[in-house]
Amino acid sequence: MNIYTKTGDKGQTSIIGGEKRSKASERVEAYGTIDELNSLLGCVISQMQLYREIKKELEEIQQILFDCGTDLATPNCSKGYRTSQESTEWLEQRIDKYADIPPALTEFILPGGCPIASSLHLARTVARRAERSVVRVQETEEINIEVLIFLNRLSDYLYVVARLINFREGREDINYRRNGKVFH
Q1: Which of 152, 154, 168, 58 is closest to 103 using CA atoms?
Q2: What are the protein's GO molecular function terms (predicted)?
């Protein structure tokens, strides 16, 4: 497999099946954003010396994100898609396991906290951007709907895990102040 193909020199890329697409196409943007999210999760994982269970979960999520990207790079897939409902159900189980560990929220919170939690909040926002990109593709082309559902649930998972890690690190959530007052 060549690292460079020179196809991109003219702003084109080949998707699975050989079809050429503009690098600015919505489909390429969507799976590119998923790739960005996957790389960001790799950065988060590299910070994790503790939290082995969550680290393993994030590594599994990286595998699923590769499947999501493959599904998006394969228009009109006749061989079947890779991303399945089971992946979303697995995430839901993880969310249910962790959601009630930190104190319940009564307000919106600011993203942040310890470095790992802050990075997870950033990954959550990239997951939301990826989700929006996939919706744009879905509006004009057929996609595996399970990719969209997985990304939606993934942002929830990342939020819950960021809160969990802050809680375990003794970092309190910072509530959003709605009145806009600046305190000195």
Answers
A1: 168
A2: ATP binding; corrinoid adenosyltransferase activity
pTM above 0.85, yes or no: yes
In the chain, the domains with their CATH numbers are 22-168 (1.20.1200.10)
Alpha carbon 142 to its chain centroid, in Å, reads: 21
Residues 6+ apart with CB under 8 A from 174: 109, 110, 112
Tens-digit pLDDT profile for residues 63-110: 999 999 999 998 776 567 899 999 999 999 999 999 999 999 988 999
Q: Which two tokens stand for residue 121?
A: 């909040």
Contact 74, 136 (CB under 8 A): no
The two tokens of residue 170 are 């003794």
Residue 33 has pLDDT above 60, yes or no: yes
Q: Which of 168, 10, 175 is nearest to 107 (CA)?
A: 175
Cβ proximity of 157 and 95 under 8 Å: yes
Q: Is 103 left (phi over 0), alpha (psi -120 to 50) or beta?
A: beta
